[in-house]
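Query structure, 438 tokens:
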């Protein structure tokens, strides 16, 4: 865990922000913290998208609920640094960076509610940034145990779905891609795929309203042609390196911004480097460290369209000189960021070296155009809004980064809770909320 908190952040501002940075931060905090008290007091597992919210939130958490209603017109607006009087260049850039790392959008395209939550987080007593013991795999194992501990319940991995079956306007099951096996649903089918593939699961003509919704998002093939906007994709570098190549004083994670003037989402401009085995040695064999470094959602898929024909052929990608050269060029900022704290880690020095592109991202994670999620800014001029967790097809639900409440781990976790609550009755939800002490 790394220490954050208000005092530590003030030290950073004093060191790097120059004149007015701390004053601007304190002025901003004074405005946002009262707003955040309501947001922080309403657990996402209690949120639902129907009038039952008056019981699950309003009745159970009256003071935070009233606070949110009081500031509703503010927290639903885009975060406007000018409006809040933030003029210090470093602080403006830093808030842009935090917003971008949290949910893939700069601060002015992020909800004020999200920024208020983040500011309040800095002021929590003994605030730290945690890393899960066992890495993200341990988190997946824990989630799977939450399912498999119940009799008759299982989790199937590496098992792609081909189609969601609809009978009499109701989702009744799924057909698996490879085997063609049909799994029947007792109550509901939930898609955590991206929006494109969620729509693709259901045949055209199965539901007129669902078809209309699909067309509203994807009648135009790409955002440039008027389709729904997406966040950019990723470049990744995954390494297994001898431990002596990582200096002892290197932190477990660092972020590099090459040039603030380029814009926070310029290709290769923001790179995150993580060495999780510094915190949890079990993640690497003895004598080694693992590194995961990536361009933070700033790689335009349009630049990679020329290589789409290689997506399904590993040998062709390996042998295509243009693809390999372009991959090396676009990975260069990542290697440079790694070298900031570990200069001995260079191409060819690792025992394991894997470089992934947006083509990889699209193929391996089944992401349309390798996207990170929908790039829908609050109150955008085009009128785009995130789809709800419910759909026009009875018994078919969706969650994840292509639904309300947006992208980033907090938002995606909230969407999962909202999806579960949409399936449950109000009374079932209240019962479950009481069991998890919400």
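Result returned for the query:
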């Amino acid at each position: 865990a790394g220490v954050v908190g208000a005092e530590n952040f003030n030290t950073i501002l004093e060191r790097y922000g120059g004149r007015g940075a701390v004053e601007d931060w304190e002025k901003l905090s004074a405005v946002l913290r009262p707003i955040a008290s309501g947001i922080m007091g309403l657990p996402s597992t209690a949120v639902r998208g129907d009038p039952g919210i008056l019981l699950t939130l309003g009745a159970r958490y009256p003071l935070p609920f009233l606070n949110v209603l009081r500031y509703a017109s503010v927290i639903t607006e885009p975060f406007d640094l000018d409006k809040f009087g933030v003029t210090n260049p470093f602080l403006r850039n830093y808030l842009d960076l935090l917003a971008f790392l949290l949910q893939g959008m700069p601060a002015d395209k992020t909800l004020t509610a999200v920024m208020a939550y983040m500011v309040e987080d800095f002021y929590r007593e003994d605030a730290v940034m945690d890393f899960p013991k066992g890495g993200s795999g341990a988190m997946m194992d824990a989630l799977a145990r939450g399912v498999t501990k119940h009799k008759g319940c299982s989790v199937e991995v590496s098992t792609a779905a081909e189609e969601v079956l609809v009978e009499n306007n109701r989702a009744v099951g799924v057909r698996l891609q490879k085997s063609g096996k049909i799994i029947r649903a007792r109550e509901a089918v939930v898609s955590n795929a991206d929006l494109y593939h969620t729509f693709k699961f259901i045949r055209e003509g199965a539901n007129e309203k669902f078809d209309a919704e699909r067309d509203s998002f994807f009648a135009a093939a790409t955002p440039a042609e008027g389709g729904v906007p997406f966040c950019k994709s990723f470049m990744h570098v995954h390494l297994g390196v001898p431990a002596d190549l990582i200096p002892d004083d290197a932190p477990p994670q660092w972020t590099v911004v090459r040039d603030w003037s380029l814009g926070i989402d310029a290709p290769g401009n923001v790179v995150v480097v993580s060495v999780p085995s510094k915190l949890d040695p079990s993640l690497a064999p003895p004598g080694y460290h693992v590194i995961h470094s990536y361009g933070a959602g700033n790689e335009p898929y349009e630049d990679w369209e020329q290589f789409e024909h290689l997506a399904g052929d590993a040998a062709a990608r390996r042998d295509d000189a243009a693809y390999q050269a372009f991959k090396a060029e676009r990975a260069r900022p990542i290697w440079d960021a790694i070298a900031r704290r570990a200069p001995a880690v260079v191409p060819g020095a690792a025992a394991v070296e894997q470089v992934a592109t947006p083509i990889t991202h699209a193929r391996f994670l089944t992401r349309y155009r390798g996207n990170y999620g929908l790039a829908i800014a609050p109150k955008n001029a085009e009128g785009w809004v995130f789809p709800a967790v419910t759909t026009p097809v009875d018994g078919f639900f969706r969650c994840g980064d292509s639904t309300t409440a947006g992208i980033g781990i907090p938002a995606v976790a909230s969407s999962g809770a909202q999806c579960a609550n949409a399936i449950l009755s109000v009374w079932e939800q209240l019962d479950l909320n009481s069991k998890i002490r919400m």
